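To illustrate the input format used throughout this study, we show a single complete record. The first block contains the structure-token representation of the backbone; no residue identities are included at this stage. The design step must infer an amino acid for every position from geometry alone.
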């Protein structure tokens, strides 16, 4: 009788741990806090940046960014966050690249998300963190053999 009870207990624990693991898997809807328009104004460098994200719908978030330096567009980027059966992925297509780069979601908590692609030249990590009406974006990784990070502090802006 003890063997049957032990086997039943093992099966119940296995089912419970599988269910808990599935519940903790992040969904793209949990990234809705990123939706909206965000701006960064660096008067010292005469640079203005903006990033716009559509709310999650259909398993995707669509975004774009633009950097204006000295009154001219210096760079732009088309962005997507997609959810499929394998997970959630950040897909970037900067103006200076001919192709897209995919980063996998590796960490998620309310108001913070981290995506990684260790094989990419730079950055290997993209982090977004919300603090009230401020959005902090950060890229980091190894560039030319040196660890580095670049911060992009932004404030909520009116979408035009």
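Output of the design step:
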């Amino acid at each position: 009788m003890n063997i049957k009870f032990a086997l039943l207990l093992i099966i119940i624990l296995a089912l419970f741990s599988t269910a808990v693991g599935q519940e903790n898997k992040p969904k793209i809807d949990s990234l809705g806090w990123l939706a909206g328009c965000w701006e960064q104004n660096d008067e010292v460098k005469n640079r203005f940046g903006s990033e716009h994200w559509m709310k999650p719908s259909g398993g995707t978030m669509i975004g774009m960014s633009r950097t204006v330096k000295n009154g001219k567009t210096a760079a732009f980027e088309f962005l997507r966050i997609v959810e499929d059966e394998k997970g959630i992925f950040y897909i970037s297509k900067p103006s200076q690249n001919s192709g897209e780069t995919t980063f996998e979601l590796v960490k998620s908590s309310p108001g913070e998300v981290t995506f990684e692609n260790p094989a990419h030249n730079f950055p290997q990590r993209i982090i977004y963190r919300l603090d009230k009406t401020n959005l902090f974006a950060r890229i980091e990784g190894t560039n030319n053999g040196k660890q580095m990070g670049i911060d992009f502090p932004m404030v909520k802006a009116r979408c035009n």
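Structural context for interpreting the output: Helices lie at 2-24. Residues 33 and 121 are 29 Å apart (CA to CA).
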